[in-house]
Specification:
This protein has one helix spanning 10-13; strands at residues 21-27, 30-33, 39-44, 49-57, 63-69, 72-79, 82-90, 92-97, 103-109, 114-120, 126-132, 136-144, 150-156, 161-167, 172-179, 190-194, 200-204, 213-218, 221-226, 233-240, 246-252, 261-267, 272-276, 289-292, 298-304, 311-319, 322-331, 339-343, 347-353, 359-365, 375-380. The protein is mainly beta. A hairpin with a 5-residue loop joins strand 29 (347-353) and strand 30. Residues 2-34 and 370-399 have low confidence and may be disordered.
Length: 403
């Protein structure tokens, strides 16, 4: 959505992006897979990146990036193996591509701090579509459903509400999802995800010591329930799998090194199954991102550090009953910035900020074995040899074109 590698210093990462060749030997009935190395590229070395990163894939799986920088959101795209800046969207808060690869940005501006969805044109100008004049917080989520309708989730900081807005082509339909004291803050955190029925699910941490909450679509609204065995912490990421199961990446604060930290939670509509992700040093603040491989196994990209550092960016994934971990990169000191990640099914794409507030892109093939007979495959990790589509886009423009 959040294996041995050589540690890389920040200075080494500023060099030209490296290309790695990975050999995979697949024998009939038995698979041996060499873990793919990671390619790391600098996106923005200005040292001004802020507290949020967003990464999206277009219909050809080229990544596009947005991240806080100065007075808004900086926007960069990668084409032909090169990152290029597209400027800054003033007062920008979040970003997403619609089903036709058109970029959209949500903004909030003084003095009212109301919410506007903007379609960005190739020349950098914006076509605004106001949503609400009520003051909204800086934590937002934006996604497009199968009909290419934009969905926005945000908080009203005055009324302590979590709100959902969807545009039908002419009108914004705005509903309240939940009320919680946690939503009074500018950076009140929550996670959201669209399911196959174009409905949005939500999860968040309450302002008290838990339990965390989940809002499930029900009729014209949402049914809210507590997530068992959770207390204080963060809901880092959320997705709905092909079977309709809710999957969460959680940071749980227990005060214990051996029980706190990154957890993986699944809800099948009846039962929650919570599992602590083993083998990590950190028990707080992982910023973990969750993805699934073609076999349905979970993959996390997460920061990991003890109290003194170094800070490590790791890829942690489950294969059968076993959890595996690989180091992507690291830097001295315990501090890190935001992290975002997604997958096209076969390749992981990540955007992260280091302790110097520089932005980097990291990518690698998912280490997913397949028994296809005796084959020797050379994979170019930059993607020039092998790139499989994440999904086939419906290319419905009717709603988005009216924004």
């Amino acid at each position: 959505m959040r294996q041995s590698a050589t540690r890389q210093t920040t200075a080494q990462l500023t060099a030209v992006a490296r290309t790695f060749i990975v050999f995979v030997l697949v024998a009939a009935g038995e698979t041996q897979l060499a873990v793919a190395a990671w390619t790391i590229e600098p996106v923005d070395l200005s040292g001004q990146a802020g507290p949020r990163t967003i990464i999206e894939l277009d219909s050809t799986n080229n990544p596009q990036a947005a991240y806080f920088s100065g007075a808004g959101v900086a926007y960069s795209i990668r084409t032909g193996g090169t990152w290029s800046s597209q400027g800054i969207v003033t007062d920008g808060q979040t970003f997403a591509l619609d089903n036709g690869d058109l970029p959209f940005f949500a903004t909030r501006s003084a003095p009212s701090f109301g919410l506007v969805l903007n379609r960005r044109l190739p020349d950098g100008s914006l076509i605004p579509n106001p949503i609400t004049s009520a003051p909204v917080g800086q934590s937002m989520w934006l996604g497009f459903d199968s009909q290419n309708r934009p969905h926005l989730a945000y908080t009203n900081t005055l009324t302590q509400l979590l709100r959902h807005a969807v545009f039908d082509g002419s009108t914004w339909n705005i509903q309240t999802v939940a009320t919680d004291p946690n939503f009074q803050f500018q950076f009140s955190s929550f996670a959201a995800a669209l399911d196959a029925n174009d409905q949005v699910h939500f999860a968040w941490d309450t302002s008290a010591n838990g339990p965390m909450k989940y809002a499930r679509p029900s009729g014209a609204g949402w049914q809210i329930q507590s997530i068992p065995n959770t207390g204080d912490g963060f809901v880092n990421d959320m997705l709905i799998d092909d079977q309709g199961n809710v999957q969460l990446a959680l940071d749980l604060f227990t005060g214990q090194i051996l029980t706190g930290g990154l957890h993986y939670d699944i809800y099948d509509g009846t039962t929650w199954t919570l599992e602590r992700v083993p083998g990590l040093d950190s028990f707080v603040g992982s910023n973990a991102q969750l993805m699934l491989d073609p076999g349905g196994e979970p993959h996390f990209l997460t920061f990991d550090s003890d109290f003194i550092g170094p800070n490590e960016l790791k890829h942690v994934y489950r294969s059968g009953a076993n959890w595996n971990s690989e180091l992507i990169t690291s830097w001295d000191g315990p501090n890190n910035g935001p992290l975002a990640a997604t997958s096209d099914g076969w390749r992981i794409h990540a955007l992260y900020v280091d302790d110097q507030q520089n932005v980097y892109y990291a990518t690698s093939f998912v280490p997913e074995p397949h028994s296809l007979g005796l084959i020797l495959i050379a994979l170019i990790a930059s993607g020039s040899l092998c790139q499989l589509p994440r999904r086939i886009y419906s290319l419905q423009h009717s709603v988005a074109d009216s924004l």
